[in-house]
């Protein structure tokens, strides 16, 4: 169970490498070579491995059946790192290594879509939306969008193979492949079915979206940190930085589980003027202690523009580094709820056909504050409106009756008035909050929009964002 839970957290620790000179594969290889020169009689690791080899050879000699040595290797590797008792130290086995590597670099070869797919055990007979892949949006300019696919299209077959009995992860892997290879899809659009061939290509996963809210307030949502996130953020913020009437910038890091620490450091450098500490990392011995500083000569975002950063309990790792750097350097006001508290970083290296992730450093904010299991405390606490205590039976009744779908079929224009009318029409029929009713119909409108038409932020339906806007209007 522990290993299973840790595997669920893999995306939160992807590429958590701060300093390449400390975490390169060459470093790991040199350390291994040095260990091999130690007197085995005084080396507990060597003694343990000798004993393990003896047990393995005894079992191999006496076991009746053939042994899958690759399976044994990966099981031993996983069990060994599990025994460290650290939730972030783990072995990523071969079947997960491709997804892990793709997440680390922030791109993959595919068709560029966001999708949903229910598990086979949740399907409803006769309801295609529960049986097939539903495209929620296409990456702007990506292969799928250029081929004419759009939101709400359903993929029923991939290369002639039905997706009905596959889960979301299995479907996602089938959609990926070699750059230049052809992917054949069967699409269900309304009542019409057609086949389409799309050439796979390298797709950069969008990790940053920006817009300008009312009252000349800039807004950027950073969903994760990959190797390309810093570039994406700077591209999004450059036109905002040039706005003469920009009142403030809101950076939304809510539910950003982290990723590439270098990306968060690069963004902090872009936002913080002068020569300031961004983050300090402490290792097992002083030789691994490092401090990242801003470069006063590097390109900077508008230094006169106030910044508000939104965080919550899903803000973790690299997101906490950026939040802590902006807070301690008094470059931003942090608003929302206390962050997750993942203040350790991992060295990641390929081993065999998998990857090894080992916690190697703990980081602290510029003021020397501990983050691990503590989190970043916001300057202004704003509790996010939740729907945790809503009536599940009522939600199922709304879904089964297709209440939102039928309403949007009749009221196709996405307006606040239409959302308000939906709430009024259903508030006495269903025992759930007005807020959740508005979110249900909002999501139905969004699901029908192309990615280029979909708004980035919804202050009216986001109490934390609306509080941030009110704070800016009052103080700046």
Write a structural description.
The chain folds into four domains: 93 residues, no CATH class; 98 residues, Pdz3 Domain, CATH 2.30.42.10; 162 residues, Alpha-Beta Complex (2-enoyl-CoA Hydratase, Chain A, domain 1); 84 residues. It has 17 helices and 19 strands. The strands form four sheets. Strands 3, 4, 5, 6, 7 and 8 form a six-stranded antiparallel sheet that branches. A six-stranded mixed sheet has the order 10-11-12-15-16-19, sandwiched between helices. Strands 1, 13, 14, 17 and 18 form a five-stranded antiparallel sheet that branches. Strand 15, helix 12 and strand 16 form a beta-alpha-beta unit.
Summarize the structure.
The chain has 476 residues and is of the alpha+beta class. The chain contains 17 helices and 19 strands.
Query: How many angstroms does the end-to-end distance come to?
Result: 50 Å
Count the DSSP helices. 17
- The CATH homologous superfamily of the largest domain is called 2-enoyl-CoA Hydratase, Chain A, domain 1
Q: What is the subunit organization of this protein?
A: single chain
Secondary-structure class: alpha+beta
The total of beta strands comes to 19
As for the CATH topology of the largest domain, it is 2-enoyl-CoA Hydratase, Chain A, domain 1
Main pleated sheet:
6 strands, antiparallel
CATH C-level class of the largest domain: Alpha Beta
**Mean pLDDT across every amino acid position:** 85
Please identify, by name, the CATH architecture of the largest domain.
Alpha-Beta Complex
Low-confidence stretches: 1-36
What Rg do the Cα atoms give? 25 Å
Instruction: Tell me, briefly, the overall form.
Output: globular
What count of structural domains?
4
Which strand-content bin applies to the residues?
A: 15-25%
Portion of residues within helices: 25-40%
């Amino acid at each position: 169970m522990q290993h299973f839970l840790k595997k669920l957290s893999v995306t939160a620790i992807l590429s958590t490498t701060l300093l390449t000179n400390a975490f390169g594969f060459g470093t790991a290889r040199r350390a291994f070579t040095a260990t091999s020169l130690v007197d085995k009689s005084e080396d507990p690791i060597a003694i343990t491995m000798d004993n393990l080899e003896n047990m393995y050879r005894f079992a191999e000699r006496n076991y009746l059946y053939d042994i899958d040595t690759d399976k044994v290797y990966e099981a031993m590797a996983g069990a060994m790192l599990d025994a460290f008792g650290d939730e972030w130290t783990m072995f990523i086995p071969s079947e997960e290594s491709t997804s892990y590597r793709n997440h680390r670099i922030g791109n993959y070869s595919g068709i560029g879509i966001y999708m949903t797919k229910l598990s086979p055990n949740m399907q409803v007979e006769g309801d295609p939306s529960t049986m097939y892949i539903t495209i929620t949006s296409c990456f702007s300019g990506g292969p799928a969008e250029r081929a004419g696919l759009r939101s709400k299209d359903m993929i029923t077959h991939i290369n002639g193979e039905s997706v009905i009995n596959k889960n979301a992860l299995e479907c996602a892997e089938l959609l990926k492949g070699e750059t230049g290879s052809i992917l054949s899809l069967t699409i269900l659009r309304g009542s019409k079915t057609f086949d389409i061939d799309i050439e796979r290509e390298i797709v950069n996963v969008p990790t940053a979206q920006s817009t300008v809210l009312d009252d000349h307030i800039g807004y950027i949502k950073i969903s994760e940190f990959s190797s390309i996130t810093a570039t994406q953020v700077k591209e999004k913020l450059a036109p905002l930085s040039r706005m003469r009437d920009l009142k403030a910038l809101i950076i939304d890091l809510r539910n950003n589980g982290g990723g590439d620490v270098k990306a968060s450091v690069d963004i902090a450098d872009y936002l913080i003027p002068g020569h300031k500490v961004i983050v300090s990392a402490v290792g097992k011995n002083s030789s691994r202690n490092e401090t990242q500083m801003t470069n006063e000569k590097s390109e900077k975002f508008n230094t006169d523009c106030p910044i508000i950063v939104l965080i919550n309990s899903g803000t973790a790792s690299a997101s906490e580094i950026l939040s802590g750097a902006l807070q301690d350097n008094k470059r931003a006001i942090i608003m929302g709820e206390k962050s997750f508290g993942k203040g350790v970083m991992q060295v990641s290296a390929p081993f065999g056909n998998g990857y090894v992730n080992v916690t190697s450093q703990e980081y602290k904010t510029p003021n020397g504050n501990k983050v691990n299991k503590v989190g970043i405390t916001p300057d202004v606490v704003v509790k996010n409106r939740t729907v945790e205590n809503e009536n599940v039976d009522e939600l199922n009744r709304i879904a089964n009756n297709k209440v939102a779908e039928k309403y949007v079929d009749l009221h196709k224009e996405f307006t606040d008035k239409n959302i308000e009318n939906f709430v009024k029409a259903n508030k006495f029929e269903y025992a759930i909050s007005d807020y959740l009713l508005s979110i249900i119909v909002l999501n139905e409108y969004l699901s029908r929009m192309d990615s280029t038409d979909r708004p980035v932020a919804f202050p009216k339906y986001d109490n934390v964002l609306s509080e941030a806007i009110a704070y800016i209007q009052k103080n700046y």
